[in-house]
Specification:
By secondary structure, the chain is α+β, with helices and mostly antiparallel strands. It has two domains: 1-156, Arc Repressor Mutant, subunit A (Orthogonal Bundle); 159-248, Roll (SH3 type barrels). Helix content is 38%, strand content 15%. The protein has nine helices and eight strands. The protein has helices at residues 20-34, 41-48, 52-64, 80-102, 111-118, 124-133, 180-189, 222-225, 244-248; strands at 68-70, 76-78, 159-160, 169-175, 196-202, 209-213, 216-220, 228-232. The strands form two sheets. A six-stranded antiparallel β-sheet has the order 3-8-4-5-6-7. Strand 6 (209-213) and strand 7 (216-220) form a beta hairpin.
């Protein structure tokens, strides 16, 4: 959805002002729903760091303006209209992350916070120029798919590495960007989108998962393996190669 805000922050299709707060709520519900999490008001409050009563008041406003609705057990879901606006914010965020990483050489553990600050002020014109300068990327540095300006978008997450079995080869496609320290550590190991990991062994009693990359063996605890998402390569042996499309986002 590409609609410019007027001077008061309103969009031509909405009565409600699309402030930074409104956009953050829509984006939070989008991320939670896409990850299979329940977007209940208490969990939205926890994610955004605000009081539950404030969430209830804002959700009521969003519902009155046709951007969200209530599902069973108090769960908040985006309407088709709300999803369009959420995708617009997500698109700007991921384009900014890619720009900061590729052009300004910022680490993939740094770009999320900076994009959070910039995404609400980015105009449609500048968004288009950044997209063009980047060569119209399809993924950001974390492997997250960048919503297209027009057309459908698939946000589905792949299987977490935590569910893989010894003996398989796992293609890393996405890594959650919510833990900067974990991103720095994984980057040091070379575990990035596009890398193939040979899954060697899982230690018993909730022990680490042992994986091989570049001839080295690493023990990854569940905190890390749940952040890494991708797919098992059918019939692949233990090897390590890199997918160019995932590494460059092109």
């Amino acid at each position: 959805m590409v609609i410019e805000k007027n001077i008061k922050g309103h969009l031509s299709c909405c009565v409600i002002e699309h402030s930074e707060t409104v956009e953050n709520y829509l984006k939070a519900v989008f991320h939670m729903s896409s990850a299979g999490e329940s977007a209940a008001t208490t969990l939205i409050a926890e994610r955004l760091g605000v009081a539950p009563p404030s969430v209830s008041a804002m959700v009521k406003r969003l519902e009155e303006n046709g951007l969200v609705s209530y599902a069973g057990r108090g769960r908040v879901v985006l309407t088709g209209h709300g999803r369009g606006h959420a995708l617009a914010v997500v698109r700007r965020h991921r384009l900014l992350e890619t720009f900061l990483h590729r052009f300004l050489k910022m680490g993939w553990d740094e770009v999320h916070i900076e994009a959070e600050r910039l995404e609400h002020a980015l105009s449609s014109r500048l968004e288009d120029r950044i997209d063009e300068a980047l060569g119209f990327p399809t993924r950001d540095p974390h492997g997250d798919p960048i919503p297209p300006k027009h057309g459908p978008h698939d946000e589905a997450w792949g299987m977490p590495l935590d569910r893989s079995t010894p003996g398989c080869v796992f293609l890393v496609e996405r890594v959650s960007d919510r833990d900067s320290a974990a991103l720095r550590y994984l980057a040091e190991l070379g575990i990035l989108p596009g890398v193939e990991l040979a899954v060697r062994e899982r230690a018993p009693f909730d022990g680490p998962l042992w994986v091989e990359l570049g001839g080295r063996i690493y023990a990854l605890g569940s905190t890390l393996t749940r952040l890494i998402h991708g797919s098992v390569i059918p019939g692949a042996g233990h090897k390590t190669t890199v997918s160019t499309e995932l590494m460059t986002g092109e």
